[in-house]
Design goal:
The chain is an alpha/beta fold. It has one domain: 3-Layer(aba) Sandwich (Rossmann fold). Helix content is 38%, strand content 23%. The protein is built from eleven helices and eleven strands. The strands form two sheets. Strands 7-6-5-8-9-11-10 form a seven-stranded mixed β-sheet, sandwiched between helices. Strand 8 (164-170), helix 6 (179-189) and strand 9 (190-201) form a beta-alpha-beta unit. Helix 7 (206-214) packs across helix 8 (216-222). The structure holds zinc ion. Zinc ion (ZN) binds next to loops. It holds the Pfam family Methyltransf_23. One of its GO terms (biological process) is methylation. Keywords: Methyltransferase, Transferase, Ubiquinone. InterPro entries: SAM-dependent_MTases_sf.
Length: 294
């Protein structure tokens, strides 16, 4: 199902696009955007996008192709569950403050394989997800056929200004070289008074920098180009125009990537690290969540 009213043309920035059988087209410049398996490909230059994806896959094939494990299959499943519980409690609280149980339009910006769409749908009247990787979008579409999904370049984003009430921007920003431009997009598409939930690793902290120093080969496989602290990402968000009103540190573990995944598979270990970390090294958590409005 595709709702064309939120879209704008990535080529000429006119809105809205017009839905035709099997395609979306721009009434202003006439450009048409094909659909692949029910997912519109909303990039101005599809050949260039495919070329960039092929280059990226050649450098780091695993990151671009490997299926993202569902929460229950991840070594960090207990940590991921804590993150999900935090985000769902935030959504309940913030939507209630706005007099709603569900957001009229909720976007998972960089939805990947769509593992988060599965529970985000409980908080959305209309659920949207976008990604730049068509391999992941196909999986997301199979998992959540009710969501409106589209291929997009975050630096030339095909949605109209202020159209999303909630933007969930989870573990994406650390992968984007021009993070300032990506945050500018998130700001532009968020409705005034809307909610941005941004999650990112706390990998600029000395604790996790130590983990990378001990295992430089991991750094090459993550595809991360930014290593933020709470202060550095908060400042970037402020520069993009956001009012950040909550910063949450979450998840503690040994500063060793191999041991971290091995030990924290056990719930009692993950729980113990959470208690000790929160008390002894509160700023050295593995994950950050920042809540912001516009
Ligand atoms: Zn156009």
């Amino acid at each position: 199902m595709t709702d064309p009213t939120i879209f704008r043309c990535p080529a000429c920035h006119s809105a809205p696009l017009v839905a035709m059988p099997g395609t979306l087209s721009c009434g202003a410049c006439g450009k048409t955007f094909p659909m692949e398996g029910g997912v519109p490909l909303l990039v101005a230059d599809l050949a260039a996008h495919e070329g960039a994806m092929a280059q990226a896959r050649a450098v780091n094939p695993d990151w671009y192709r490997t299926e993202q494990p569902p929460e229950a299959a991840s070594p960090w499943r207990h940590h991921l569950k804590k993150r999900r519980h935090y985000v769902t409690s935030v959504l309940k609280r913030e939507l209630a403050q706005r007099g709603r149980a569900r957001a009229p339009r909720l976007l998972d910006l960089g939805c990947g394989d769509g593992t988060n769409l599965l529970w985000l749908k409980d908080f959305a009247e209309n659920l949207y997800g976008s990604d730049y990787n068509p391999v992941r979008l196909a999986r997301a579409h199979a998992r959540s056929p009710e969501a409106t999904l589209f291929l997009a370049d975050i630096l030339d984003y095909p949605a109209v200004d202020g159209c999303f009430d909630v933007v969930f921007f989870n573990h994406v920003i650390e992968h984007i070289p021009d993070d300032g431009a990506a945050l500018a997009t998130a700001y532009r598409i968020l409705a005034p008074g809307g909610l941005l939930i941004l999650g990112t690793p706390n990998e600029g902290s000395w604790w996790w920098q130590l983990a990378y120093r001990r295992a430089p080969e991991i750094r090459r496989t993550t595809d991360h180009v930014h290593f933020y602290t709470a202060e550095s990402i908060r400042e970037k968000m402020r520069q993009a125009g956001f009012s950040v009103f909550e910063v949450e540190h979450m998840g503690w573990g040994p500063p060793d990537w191999h041991l971290d995944g091995k030990w924290r598979q056990h719930k009692w270990v993950d729980d113990l690290f959470e208690i000790l970390g929160r008390t002894l090294v509160p700023n050295q958590a593995s994950s950050l969540y920042l809540l912001a409005t516009k």
